[in-house]
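USER: I would love a firmer grasp of how sequence relates to backbone shape in proteins. This is the protein in question:
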Amino acid sequence: MHGGINSLESYATIRPAGRAVPRQPLVTAGDGRPVAERPPWLTQEELRTYAELRARQARLADDIRARRAELIRRLAADAPIEPGAYHATLRSYSQRLLTKTRLAEILSEDEIEDLRARVEPTQRLELRVTCRG
């Protein structure tokens, strides 16, 4: 091989959620040190497509919320369902939501801060794509 590169190895990175990313080739120099290969450019087309899909997703989410509310309203009022392949039911369930407001009703500020200090932060990775033009 040329340029002092004489081996091809594999490596894995760990995502914030603790799942391994699929193994990718890693080129190393003669002394075993990794030779950094720059990944391909993020194209404007890729960024534009991503931004457009996210905007479409937000519009769809709004539409889904509105349609869901309307279906629930009508089902709760015993609206009949047209015969066919689709059917709908309402199911009520409960769950415990520990919000800061609810905890403040139960615990003192010191207890809340102690609890927060004992819980490890959750790492998240946020991708923001913006358009300057």
